Amino acid sequence: MAWGCALCLALAGGALLALLVQLLRWLRADGDLTLLWAERWGKKPEHELRGKVVWVTGASSGIGEELAYQLAKLGALLAISARREDELQRVKKKCLQISSLSESDILVLRLDLTDRSSHEAATNSVLKHFGKIDVLVNNGGRSQRSLFVDTNLDVYNAIIELNYLGTISLTKYVLNHMIQRKKGKIVTVSSVMGIMGAPLATGYCASKHALQGFFNSLRTELTDYPEISIIQICPGPVQSQIIQNVFTENLAKSIENSGDQSHKMPTDRCARLTLVSVANDVKEAWISDHPYLAVCYLWQYAPTWAWWLMNRMGKKRIQNFKSGIDADASYSRKKK
């Protein structure tokens, strides 16, 4: 009997210790635990993506630009797209400087996601140049900083046209090619705002929720093609130019002060975790520091608590915005 009690105590102690270790990992995490497990024990992007043809939209700045640099270093063949061809040429030049890629290994392809009539021709241009598309990274899009009561409805139309309809339009043409090959990866950079709701971003949240619903549904339509992966990346606040290019109350107005961005996740860390997700076919990856990472878990498992917390965080977010500082400055961890 005493031996049995000792064994039960040892098992309970071991379980408690394991729970404590997981809690400590979670408190220090900058991604969901599935993603961080894949980073530690899973497939490496260096092995999985070398020699693959990867098409990155929104590649002229921010996360897309950093993805291009990291993919170039890995030895992936690149098609990079955005509206600003001069910026794409700058990105290509740096990719060539930091990698062993040759001029023909990187295709610069100007692309406007809102011009849906051009998407088939753009897809054919990539296929003509490389002969295949292994990975499409849907990264193009714009965020929002305005209150609903102050915002013209044509802003919402523009957000949906760019972030949602433009993305699924391009996906349609690339997916047809992947179905013919019976393999490929469709990677969409969504946002934690596709999981939760937050003030100053009603239209942006709506577009990202639409992407989440669309790609979760599309995944279920592709069960006959097990080697076609649908991967959704949900970053939180990241150091990038996204704030400088946000939609505001009307289409003609730009944001006056983007504020200090240094407290947010470094862009290179977000890009690295994105590539880990791609290499390991993580269906949905949350890439964020706390408190947004914690809110993702709450929204998933305890939505009533998430609503309560976001109401309080949201009030401070609006105050920050009206004061001319970054909306998320009050509760993001300062990067050293």
TrEMBL record:
GO MF term set: oxidoreductase activity
Secretion signal span: none
Key words, A-Z: Oxidoreductase
Family matches, as SUPFAM superfamilies: NAD(P)-binding Rossmann-fold domains
UniProt keyword Oxidoreductase present: yes
Annotated family: Belongs to the short-chain dehydrogenases/reductases (SDR) family.
Full protein name: Dehydrogenase/reductase 7
Protein source organism: Taeniopygia guttata (Zebra finch)
